[in-house]
Amino acid sequence: MPAKTHREPHIASNSNFISDIVIGMSDGLTVPFALAAGVSSAVNDTHIVTTAGLAELVAGAISMGLGGYLAGKTELEHYAAEKKNEYYEVETIPEKEKQEVRDIFAGFGLSPQVQEMAAEEIALDKDKWVEFMMQYELGLSEPDPKRATKSAANIGLSYVAGGIVPLLPYFFVDTPMEGLKISAVLTLCCLFIFGWFKSKATGQPLFSGAIRVTIIGAIAATAAFFVAKLFGA
After folding, report:
1. Contact call for residues 123 and 98 (beta carbons, < 8 A)
2. Cα–Cα distance between 89 and 68 in angstroms, integer?
3. Which of 134, 142, 164, 192 is most exposed, with the fewest beta carbons within 10 Å of its own?
4. Each residue of 209-219: pLDDT tens digit?
5. Which residues of 208-228 are buried (b: 16+ CB within 10 A; e: fewer)?
6. Which residues have C-beta within 8 Å of that of residue 212, sequence separation ≥ 6?
7. What is the pLDDT of residues 143-158, one digit of tens each?
């Protein structure tokens, strides 16, 4: 009977996705909320608030998505450049590279004899040798080739998902201040829930993490409200 393959669950496999969602959602909940609060203190027409909010939502999603795309492309380009350099080094200065392999295994506590055997064995396959150096010398793992587009989509869509929450009440009320009251309660609740799950995903204390995210959103909205009110007056 064949032995079953043992697979260990790893949170790290989804770390990029979680990171994208956290970036997009946190800004999506906070920035449109602050904008709507600020505009609400300066105008008496909910249509102006929703128009400004939707315009910011689109612009913010595009900006955030583009930032994620450029970060993903930079990661791919950096990996490719380092890999090209490693190929050059194993071809032109192989003995020095073998010594670096020995040093890596020495750090693992292996004996000099085993270090030598391992270095010679790894050097037989240039591709595997380069992969080994990329991971253990430079600490780089090969990124997903689609990382840039995935990151752009994840961040942009999560920004929209978060940003629609504080704007939604303004579509169903007569005055901006009414909308702001409902928006504040709804958004702060969502910020708390988001902060809770963010803390759980990142291994931080749940309650304090949730409170911290909520307070940041509340401070941003309060500051925007009073700044707009001051200049509006």
Report:
1. yes
2. 32
3. 142
4. 889 888 988 88
5. ebbbbbbeebbebbeebbeeb
6. 195
7. 888 889 999 999 999 9
Of 173 and 229, the one with more pLDDT: 173
Phi, psi of 43 (to 5 degrees): -130, 165
H helix and E strand count, the chain = 8, 0
Region of 70 please: left (phi>0), alpha (psi -120 to 50) or beta.
alpha
In angstroms, what CA-CA distances link 130 with 12, 67, 101, 104, 125? 23, 30, 11, 14, 9
What DSSP line would sit under 134-202, residue for residue? HHHTS---PPPTTHHHHHHHHHHHHHHHHHHHHHGGGGS-SSHHHHHHHHHHHHHHHHHHHHHHHHHHH
Tokens read off for 77: 């380009």
Q: How far apart are CA 53 and CA 56, in angstroms?
A: 5
Answering whether pTM is above 0.85, one says: no
